[in-house]
Every structure is written in structure tokens, then in C-alpha cells.
Amino acid sequence: MIIGITGGSGSGKTTLLQLIARQGGVVFDCDAIYHELLKSDPSLLASVSRRFPGTVTNGVLNRKKLGEIVFSQEQALLDLNEITHAAVKNRVMQLLESKPSLAAIDAIGLFEGALDSICDVTVAIIAPAQVRIARIMARDGISEEYAKQRIAAQHSDDWFAAHCDAVLENTGTEEEFTAKCLAFLDKLGIIKEKAKGE
Q1: Is residue 164 helix, strand or coil?
Q2: Which of 78, 105, 150, 151 is least surrounded by CB atoms within 10 angstroms?
Q3: Distances from the Cα of 101 to the Cαs of 23, 29, 63, 181, 184, in angstroms?
């Protein structure tokens, strides 16, 4: 089974991913895959550099500089997505050639990158904007203004909810959200008995 997980930055997708990994699932973080490709695929880096001059120096992408451009200009973000989605999907397809019995794909652009087409079920993780802003600021060490810009450039929770088969709302404590995630996985029939009783 392949589970597609999506939702905005800071919504809590990692919690569900960790639970799937604990059940023996293989987890693909498309953001991490993208950054790995920027180091291992010179053609991808060259494409980014061509479209966004000044964001690549000595073969290294300045993520903050690129982020400031794409999170403030809608067309720039669309252009970046067009460059990166195909490369990321190709890499995910390569990684899936080992045919794991359980896998999760974590991708904010799950639908734009056409990764939803290879998933058996898709789930949106949603959370209040203020909670997400605080999480992103703490996690990435960025300003509130930049965190707000990033969230404003992403789809709304309603959009994610409308496109996915299931929705998990991360509004309570970490324990409450973990319980929601476990119930979701149990419904899919992928919780091992031992984990249920723990």
C-alpha cells in the first residue's frame, strides 16, 4: 500500500510519517529528495540557476534567497514547481522499484507533481495557521513574516481537504494527534497487533 501525505508546512505530517515508519513502512520525504537531487543532479541545479539567477553560487543553492523569490511571486513558485516536480517524481518511482509492501510519500505538491496517481490513499494533514507559523519559525529559524509568506504561498487547508481521500486535523495536543493518526492507520489495516496494545 502507498499512502500519499500532503498538507501545508508545519501542519504535522512528520507525526504520521514516523508512525508509518514504525510499522515497517518506507517513507519518502519529497522535500528531502528535492534537496538531495540539487546536490546529485547537476542538470536540476542548472535549471534552477537559469530561471533564478543569483540563487546558485559555486554549485550551491541559496535556499533562503530562492525562498524569498518564490514565496513572494506566484509565477516564480509555479516555475520552480515545474522544474522540480518531474525530477522528484522520477526519483520516487526509482525508489519504489523495490516494491515495498507499505510506503508513504510526503509531498506538499502531491497533486501538482502527479504523485497522487501512484497512491492507494491520500490524506491531508491540516492545522491552524498560527500553530503552523510558530512551528515553522522554531523548526527553520526564520522570521514570522517569512513564515507567513511561505504559508500564504501554499494551498489552503480547504484545498488539501477537498483533494484528499481523508483528512486529519492537528488541533489538539501531540498525544491527541498521534491517537488520530493511529486510528487512521488502524482503519487502513496496517497497524500491527503489538503496536495496538502498546
Answers
A1: coil
A2: 78
A3: 11, 17, 34, 19, 18
What is the rounded distance in angstroms from the CA atom of residue 183 to the CA atom of residue 124? 15
> For residues 179 and 67, which has the higher predicted lDDT (pLDDT)?
179
What band does 196 get if pLDDT is binned at 50, 70 and 90?
A: very low
Between the two ends of the chain, the Cα-to-Cα distance in Å is: 24
The DSSP secondary-structure symbol of 155 reads P
Please name the amino acid found at residue 134: A
Per-residue pLDDT band for 195 (boundaries 50, 70, 90) equals very low
Residue written as cell 517524481?
A: 89
Query: Which of 150, 92, 159, 90 is closest to 124 using CA atoms?
Result: 159
Q: Strand 56-57 vs strand 60-61: parallel, antiparallel, or unpaired? A: antiparallel
pLDDT tens string 1-21 = 999 999 998 999 999 999 999
Distances (CA, A) of 31 to 8, 158, 196: 12, 22, 30
